[in-house]
Design goal:
54% of the residues lie in helices and 9% in strands. It has 395 residues and is α+β, with helices and mostly antiparallel strands. It has one domain (3-389): Orthogonal Bundle (Cytochrome p450), CATH 1.10.630.10. The strands form three sheets. The protein has a five-stranded mixed sheet with strand order 1-2-8-5-3, with helices on both faces. A three-stranded antiparallel sheet has the order 4-10-9. A hairpin with a 2-residue loop joins strand 6 (289-291) and strand 7. The structure holds protoporphyrin IX containing FE. Protoporphyrin IX containing FE (HEM) is lined by residues 67, 82-83, 94, 145-146, 227-228, 231-232, 235-236, 239, 272, 276-278, 281, 334-336, 340, 342-344, 347-348. Protoporphyrin IX containing FE (HEM) binds at residues 67, 82-83, 94, 145-146, 227-228, 231-232, 235-236, 239, 272, 276-278, 281, 334-336, 340, 342-344, 347-348.
Length: 395
């Protein structure tokens, strides 16, 4: 079907703008999901999947919907990795890292540390009575956790963030049709040296063990390390910021969780359902596929809206309501399903739970400032700030 026919065939998708997908996206996703759960969007030059069933069908079928495509910009900046390969090659890239991210291993290595680190980060703000929890807690916790997981402890958070920003700028540049710039090249080379140093000097570290295991080349070890690092920073910061904002912004749910702390993991899961920090994932069709009303052509971009799937009313009753006691909140798809399921999901959950616990322990009476503005973003969604105050209310 040529693009003009597609536009006529999917009138709701035809008028969706990038701004509608970036700002208050949920009403737009609801309209699409009701009328065109797999729709053609000229704004993204591809199909957008907003229904939960078709989303699962795409995510679970890597033979028909691959990530392995030259348009995938991250691979053009850091090289091929588990994020940009499928089939046997994907398994080869992912397997050497998998053991270190299993639930029991993560709990052993990080549960006590994240609890202490989250409290340490908040401690510096206690005397002031108000702060922005994104830069105070969510962001430095995200950087600290992944630096520790990769044994890049000698790299201070500012340096890690510098690499991060330069590589993100490179990926955005490639998306906009530009070549990879000098700043990005320098950051990639600097990070590469830090990875090589860790492999040489930190015997027993994850990176040294993967290098020794021998199934990845030095280039592949680097590109997977970069993906681990960059997959962890913005997403985890967003996940924690979103969870804090959802919970603190809803006084009755906050009181329920404060009174029964066993609800904290469910509150985090419900926040992932409401606003997955990474909200769009891209695949490329390897063959012609009919998905609901859509005839998808070979090579077509197929973007899955995890935010759309997570508010599908067929599965989630009253889907726009934040409800920490929702019985099926674990059916949310923020970490996707299928072969590319997030490798860091246990580590991500652990740090956000630690952040929420630290806030509940240390900031009694915590409340959102009136100037709070909800999450925004096309691919990564989070609020610009999570400004809070605590202690006795001024009014
Ligand atoms: C410690 C933190 C994290 C680490 C180390 C991490 C690491 C990774 C890695 C290595 C992958 C690629 C897996 C593969 O392709 O086989 C991945 C995928 C993914 N991660 Fe994470 N991640 C973290 C946190 C998060 C968070 C907080 C979110 C969102 C709330 C998230 C969402 C995703 C999604 C949606 C994918 C799938 C991408 C796709 O299928 O195209 N991750 N993650």
């Amino acid at each position: 079907m040529d693009p003009v026919d597609r536009t006529a065939r999917f009138p709701v998708g035809a008028v969706v703008t990038l701004e509608a997908l970036t700002g208050d996206v949920h009403p737009c996703l609801a309209r699409l999901r009701t009328a065109e759960p797999v729709s053609w969007l000229p704004a993204i030059g591809g199909w957008l999947v907003t229904g939960r069933d078709p989303a699962l069908a795409v995510l679970r079928d890597a033979d028909s919907f691959t990530v392995d495509d030259p348009r995938f910009s991250t691979a053009r900046v850091v090289g091929p990795s588990m994020l940009s390969t499928d089939g046997a090659d994907h398994a080869r890239h992912r397997a050497p890292f998998a053991g270190a991210f299993k639930h029991a291993v993560v709990m052993d290595g990080f549960e006590a540390w994240t609890a202490i680190e989250a409290r340490r980060l908040l401690a510096g703000h206690l005397a002031v009575g108000r702060c922005d929890l994104r830069p105070a807690l969510a962001a430095p916790l995200a950087v600290g956790v992944i630096a520790r997981a990769l044994n890049l402890e000698e790299a201070d958070p500012d340096r890690v963030l510098g690499w991060y920003r330069a590589i993100v700028a490179g990926v955005e540049g490639v998306n906009a049709g530009r070549e990879v710039g000098d700043g990005t090249r320098r950051a990639v080379a600097d990070l590469r040296r830090a990875v090589d140093r860790t492999v040489r000097n930190s015997a027993g570290s994850l990176l040294a063990e993967v290098a020794e295991e021998g199934s990845l080349t030095a280039d592949e070890l680097f590109s997977n390390t970069a993906v681990l690092m960059f997959g962890a920073i913005e997403t985890s910061e967003g996940m924690t910021a979103n969870a804090l904002a959802h919970l603190i912004g809803d006084p009755s749910q906050l009181a329920a969780v404060a009174n029964d702390r066993s609800l904290v993991p469910d509150a985090v899961e419900e926040s992932l359902r409401m606003e997955p920090a990474a909200t769009l994932v891209d695949r490329y069709a390897t063959r012609e596929v009919d998905l609901l009303e859509a005839r998808i052509g070979v090579g077509d971009l197929v973007t899955v809206s995890l935010a759309g799937a997570n508010r599908d009313p067929v599965v989630f009753n009253d889907p726009d309501r934040f409800d920490v006691r929702r019985p099926n909140l674990h059916l949310q798809l923020a970490f996707v399903k299928g072969p590319h399921v997030c490798l860091g999901l246990h580590l991500a959950r652990l740090q956000t739970i630690a952040a929420v616990d630290a806030v509940l322990d240390l900031l009694p009476g915590v409340r959102l400032d009136d100037d709070f503005e909800p999450a925004r973003g096309l691919v990564f969604r989070k609020p610009a700030a999570v400004p809070v105050a605590w202690g006795p209310s001024e009014g």
